[in-house]
Amino acid sequence: MGLGTDIRLSRLFANPSGNLFGIAVDHFVGYGNVREGGLSDLPQAVARCMTARPDTMTMTPGTAKHLWSDYAGQAALIVQASYWTPDDRIRGQLSTPADAIRLGADALAVAIAVRGETEGDFIRWLSDAVRAAAPYDIPVVAHIYPRDYTDGVKIVFTPDEIAYAVRVGIETGVDVIKVGYPGDERAFADIIAACPVPVVMAGGPKEPTLAGALTQIHAGMRAGARGAVVGRNIWGEADMEHAARAYAAVIHDGLDADQAIART
């Protein structure tokens, strides 16, 4: 790891808490109807999310190109390199480390799926990105999601599968690993303790309540996670500004869900 990588990583974890509170608006069009939901108006969603002063914002290269100039310097920019749906209906690569550097990013995110027939292709994406990022000293943040094919195809968060996802990140040489919370604080603590790079949590599927979503993040932080990067559980809330501030309170101030909701 070179000096440039160290410096850029320090920007991701610049908060005095040492943790990372990130918001992701990198959900590609293949996820659904672009006229509905919290990302139907991308400029407005980015503006509203930024009121909570996140440490990082993760977005596709096109979103960054068109929207990020107004917020440069207010948070670290992470450019998403890939897109896919769990059933592989669409999957591809959006950007390279060089593209991310040209956009002024501090890191490149690479979202991949593991398990299933296309797992090898996804892991190759990740290892290729690590290799391509090295000459630029830009960190690679891996978003790794295990799949289960027992009944159709779905993303799963069991301790065994999250441990597997983390191992993929370690062995491909990434700088930060983002995975879902496995629902077992002790198991997650063991997974994190065995990982030599920072582990941050994915926000996960949309939870029925903000309190439920924050409770998972609080448990993951107790287990040793270095933060979270959250998407739909922030911009999927009617009051996304309040939700974002509550996440920041859990991640940076150590508050539990009820305390965070009440304070913000």
Gist of the model:
The protein is α/β, with parallel strands linked by helices. 41% of the residues lie in helices and 19% in strands. The protein has one domain (3-263): Aldolase class I (TIM Barrel, Alpha-Beta Barrel).
Outline the biggest β-sheet. 8 strands, parallel, barrel
Tell me the CATH architecture. Answer: Alpha-Beta Barrel
CATH class label: Alpha Beta
Series of H and E elements: HEHEHEEEHEHEEHEHEHEHHH
Task: Enter the CATH topology name.
Answer: TIM Barrel
Determine Rg (CA atoms, Å): 17 Å
**Count of folded domains:** 1
Average residue pLDDT: 95
| Structural class by sheet pairing and helices | alpha/beta
Strand content: 15-25%
The total count of helices amounts to 11
Which regions are unreliable across 5 or more consecutive residues at pLDDT < 50? none
Tell me the helix content: 40-55%
Kindly report how far apart the N and C termini lie. Answer: 38 Å
Count of extended strands: 11
Shape descriptor reads globular
CATH homologous superfamily designation = Aldolase class I
Which strand order does the major sheet show? Answer: 1-2-3-6-7-9-10-11
Keywords for this entry:
single chain; alpha/beta; TIM Barrel; eight-stranded parallel β-barrel; two-stranded antiparallel sheet; 11 helices; 11 strands
